[in-house]
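Protein modeling request. Please complete all fields; requests missing the sequence field cannot be processed.
Requester role: graduate student
Desired output: 3D structure, token encoding
Chains: 1
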Amino acid sequence: MAAMMVVNTPASSSITRPNAGYSSSGGGLPCRVLQMRPSRAPRPAVARVAKNRPEVGGNAASMPNLVEKNARETRTKKQLHKPQEAPTYQESIHRQLSMVDVLQKIGISRHFASEIKSILDFTYSYWLQRDEIILGAETCAMAFRILRMNGYNVSADGLSHISTDLSDTRSLLELYKASQVSTSDDELILDSIGSWSGHLLKQQLTSTEAQRAPLLREVEHVLDSPFYTMLDRLEHKRNIEQFDVIEHPILQLTWQTNQDLLGLGVMDFYTSQSIYQQEYQHLDSWVKESRLNQLPFARQKLAYFYLSAASTMFPPELSDARILWAMNGALTTVVDDFFDVGGSKDELENLTALVEMWENQEETEYFSEQVEIVFSAIYSSVNELGSKASAVQGRDVTGHLVEIWQELLRNMMTEVEWRTSGYVPTLDEYIENAVVTFALGPIVLPALYFVGPKITESMVIDPEYSELFRLMSTCGRLLNDVQTYEREYKEGKLNSVSLLVLHSDGSMTIPEARMKLQKPIDTCRRDLLRLVLREDNVIPRPCKELFWNICKTCYFFYYEGDAFSCQEEKAGAVDAVIHDPLQLPMNLLSELDLSTLRERIKIEY
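Delivered output (605 residues):
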């Protein structure tokens, strides 16, 4: 069977980026497909230096060329199919799952999709038989986690009969990670496993001997940062830089295979990073051209929204989705600040009316320059992005994008009415309105049109679509409320924390209210993950993953505080994904033969 790899880079767009000369899945000229057949050596590729591409700064090392990348991929594919010396299926499954885990951790699993599917299908067949796979705690836990996160229907009951050496760090770590992929409040076995495995791992961290073990760096990270609080591309970078920690000794990989895996991860990261730099530069220019940076009341959060887009939708071909995500994220933040602190009631009513009469702009009258700047930015971006989305989808979807913004501003006006009239809503009234005013609609829903699958009108009105949005927005809204209640109360805004206290007639304190909200937060997250992973449903999996991506983004910013409101809190993460080179030992870079990175990254595909 021929192994195939498609190299994609973003398409040109008048609104989204400079002309890169590449094709995306959304249209344009097809990318070249490079085929590697086991029966013969791959034909040499012709590399051309592309012009007008940004440099990757800060690192004198360079990326392998395309032929070397193909060779690395071929060797890795052979390793995935390599006959195992171990006599048991358990040993074979363990090795194969460990390889899959490594590929996912360093961000290159998408290049081996068919090989990984074969491994997971094989593993699932033995999971269903309750065969030898259940004999080893580490293998069983890893199989459960990877199978579940790839959409296989596996029950947590499969973990209920395993036994493990309580001093075996790797088994405990796999059990703890498996406990985090809960998709229901009823999976008590996972809660139990998470509790005792986490306790034992924390004990190991305090051990003097354990502190000398490289694996304990991974343990500390997993305990401090649950997987649903971390962004993928940040994790990929960390795992590439700590490759010695994530590589599993049972893989028994050759030195060359280790180098191939690491080399592929390095090259994939740098290829993506060069594209991110172009996209972010263009978005920054858009903010200035739209005059959004001239609004004194507005938080400038473009960097944070682009971070979340690039870190969760990281493949190069998802450029349009990243651009829309970041652009609308920046816009919704400006609008939110306008309604909260920047605009008078007259200005807010004027802006809402302008959005309502979208098709009748000849009657446009701006109450103030601030209204003109905000509305013009919304109007121009929605129309241009709507035109692009319509071309991708093969039908007019601009009207849907307009409706999303109209609903957002109507609900924001409801909150203004509550605030100015002194009305105290019930918690249910607040949540129903806040699901919309948390302003994830303009970010996520239009992006669905750019991730590949066709989104029909029937999908948009399907209950599953609404439920995905409700769970995502409720989880994000409550996470935000728990961390921002004090600031919002000073601004005259009520949220779920203050409402719980007000409606308790003095029987509940602020700390108790925050604690009470943790259960619905956890429930929404688990229910959302279950819906995203379920296969027999209406919304395509790539689209559902966007809802999960923004849920993780909300945890990333609000898990331990209000990092979103702080200009510098996550600045290091922005730099790590967009600007900073990988931190790898120079001798390692030399072994990877990453010479002349600047020239090789500019290969014309």
